[in-house]
Each structure stands twice: as C-alpha cells, then as structure tokens.
C-alpha cells in the first residue's frame, strides 16, 4: 500500500516535459556501433584534411605497422631521374633537319623548343684545345645577344676583347647522334683568337 501511494505521488509531481527517472539503458552493441561510427567519421575528416602526399605517407606507414617490413623498401629510386636540362642535352641537335623531326617524342620536342629559342647568326666558340685542332661551337642565347657577345665582343667564350674583330666563316665538322655532319658557321674573333682558329692552317 505504501509503495503504490508513493508511486502515485511521484506521478502526480512529475512535470509534463520531465523524463522518467529510470530511462532504458542502450545495449552495449548499440553503444559500440555508435562509437565505431564516430571514430570512422573522425578518421575520414582527418584524411580529407591531408594532401595527397601526406595521405600516401600515412597509408605506407600503416601498412608497415600492420604487415611489417621496412619503410626504405617503399622509397622511390631516384637514380634514373632526369631534369629538363638532361633531356635537352641528350636530344640536342646543332642543326635540326627535316628527317630529325620525324618520329618526334616529347624529349625531342623539348630539345627542339630549346633550339628554336637560340640565335643562329653568330656562334660562340671554345678554342681552349686549338693546338689539338679541336673546336667547340654553339649558338648564342638571349643574354649573349643583348650583351653583344659573339658580335661586338669576341666570340671566344673565354675572351671579352672588342678591338679588331674579324668575321670568319668556318666549315664546322662534328659528330652528332653517331652521325658525321658539317655546317657553315660565322664567327667574330679578335686577332689573338683568330690566330688560334687558324693555328693549323698557318
């Protein structure tokens, strides 16, 4: 009797918006499921906030952590890496002919693009091995054209003389891509460098 009257009194005092004293406790499986969902949401948010490389590093380190191994095994080999300059050097032509432009690869196109930017009126010469009758010639780049190197300054790359320059037309014989070629090139040299150019002829 006492218990029923107490329950009735509690029911009378309970406000309409108030929840019961004894709410049902969720099953532990439901709680675990909700916890997993929250954890997955947090992980997904964390991955989205990373950039592609950071995600890659995380996945690799997780793989090593769970399956074993060494992180060094996943490092990319850089032994065969090439810069644009390496590609240009390998595919460079002193003069491009029509047959050179057949079967163009991206490497050849890059070298051709560089070649098209060169100024092919006067050459710059390397006369350091003139006594061996070995000469190196290349076309001028933009900075050399602006400074007058090779036209108003001596065309020898190690000489800055601008007095008594003389023009020479030279038959340049060279080997390129395993093939013998020759081209007529123009040079502007000071008297001393002109002597080096004609050393063996004299």
In a nutshell, what does this entry contain?
InterPro entries: Folate-sensitive_fs_Fra10Ac1, Histidine_acid_phosphatase. By secondary structure, the chain is α+β, with helices and mostly antiparallel strands.
Key features of this structure:
single chain; 202 residues; alpha+beta; two-stranded antiparallel ribbon; two-stranded antiparallel sheet; 7 helices; 4 strands; 17% strand; Folate-sensitive_fs_Fra10Ac1; Histidine_acid_phosphatase; FRA10A associated CGG repeat 1
Folded structure, characterized:
This protein has 7 helices and 4 strands. It is an alpha+beta fold. Among the domains are: about 30-75, no CATH class; about 115-200, no CATH class. α4 crosses α5. The radius of gyration is 40 Å and the shape is rod-shaped. It starts with a helix and ends in a 5-residue tail after the last helix.
Beta-strand percentage? Answer: 15-25%
* CA-atom Rg in angstroms: 40 Å
Broad structural category: alpha+beta
Strand count, sense and closure of the main sheet? Answer: 2 strands, antiparallel
Our measurement of the CA-to-CA distance between the termini, rounded to an integer number of angstroms, reads 137 Å
Order of helices and strands: HHHHHEEHEEH
- Ranges where pLDDT stays below 50 over 5 or more residues in a row are none
GO molecular function, one term: phosphatase activity
Protein name: FRA10A associated CGG repeat 1
Pfam family, one: Fra10Ac1
InterPro entries: Folate-sensitive_fs_Fra10Ac1, Histidine_acid_phosphatase
């Amino acid at each position: 009797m006492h218990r029923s009257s107490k329950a009735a009194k509690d029911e009378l005092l309970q406000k309409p918006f108030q929840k019961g004293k004894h709410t049902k406790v969720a099953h532990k499986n439901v709680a675990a499921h909700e916890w997993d969902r929250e954890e997955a949401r947090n992980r997904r948010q964390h991955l989205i906030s990373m950039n592609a490389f950071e995600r890659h590093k995380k996945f690799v380190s997780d793989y090593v952590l769970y399956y074993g191994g060494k992180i060094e095994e996943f490092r990319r080999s850089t032994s065969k890496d090439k810069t644009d300059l390496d590609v240009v050097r390998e595919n460079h032509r002193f003069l491009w002919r029509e047959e050179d432009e057949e079967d163009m690869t991206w490497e050849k196109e890059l070298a051709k693009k560089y070649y098209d930017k060169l100024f092919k009126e006067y050459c710059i010469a390397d006369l350091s091995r003139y006594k061996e009758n070995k000469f190196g010639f290349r076309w001028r780049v933009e900075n050399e054209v602006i400074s007058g190197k090779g036209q108003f300054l001596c065309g020898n790359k190690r000489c800055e003389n601008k007095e008594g320059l003389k023009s020479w037309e030279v038959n340049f014989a060279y080997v390129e891509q395993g093939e013998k070629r020759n081209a007529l090139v123009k040079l502007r040299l000071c008297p001393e460098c002109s002597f080096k150019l004609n050393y063996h002829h004299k």
